[in-house]
């Protein structure tokens, strides 16, 4: 199709040439969004399928052990974040029911909590999370790390991405996309350990069949509405597996950094 972009709009997890990404969601030369909120998915009827057409891949990043000397995430800046899931819920405006459902349904395995608790006690592991309330991956990913923090004693600080673009700039996916959620891990001395972006590999693998549900459906038709309902139901059916996979990837990242 004439004018179709091949670039993936990763901060809303939809290719820029697909319907899930609104026309005003442009990418500037630096790979960041030119509008204030990135995509206006939070105001669209299909916000719940924001990940349907994504071509992005899950990213688990492990950099050099030494933190960036010029990082804007100083201990003081870290301390300014929201400290709990409750504070996050008070701060956001949209999709509270989706965040709450993921939080309520997620039950971390006892052995995973014990493993993380051991790492927290030995190394003072703490987490910073960047997110926004319109993003389906954040609906799922942020409650996971919030509940893990509660049950393991891990210190947590959550930040709204669009109010903290300088932090986001340090953790761009593929060096250009403001993808969320981004979970950054530090030790008790505020030494950077690594960061995790978007969603688990299992989620990416299982999204292929979900794309087929929506494929070829014309927007705002009965067929599209039915397919969207099927997609949403299937996504919730798979959600617990994706949440548990996120836990495993975070633990693997920590072991790579600390063992």
How much beta, percentage-wise?
5-15%
Report the radius of gyration as a whole number of Å: 18 Å
CATH class of the domain at 59-206 and 235-258: Alpha Beta
What fold name stands as the CATH topology of the domain at 59-206 and 235-258? Glutaredoxin
- End-to-end CA span: 50 Å
Report on the structure:
The chain is of the alpha+beta class and 259 residues long. It has a domain at 59-206 and 235-258: Glutaredoxin (3-Layer(aba) Sandwich). Helices cover 41% and strands 12% of the residues. The chain has 8 helices and 7 strands, in the order E-E-E-H-H-H-H-E-H-E-H-E-E-H-H. It has helices at residues 75-78, 85-91, 96-105, 110-123, 136-152, 165-168, 201-214, 222-258; strands at residues 8-9, 14-15, 59-61, 126-131, 155-160, 182-186, 192-197. The strands form 2 sheets. The chain has a 5-stranded mixed beta sheet, with helices on one face. The chain has a two-stranded antiparallel ribbon with strand order 1-2. Helix 4 crosses helix 8 (222-258), helix 5 (136-152) runs parallel beside helix 8 and helix 7 packs antiparallel against helix 8. Residues 1-57 have low confidence and may be disordered.
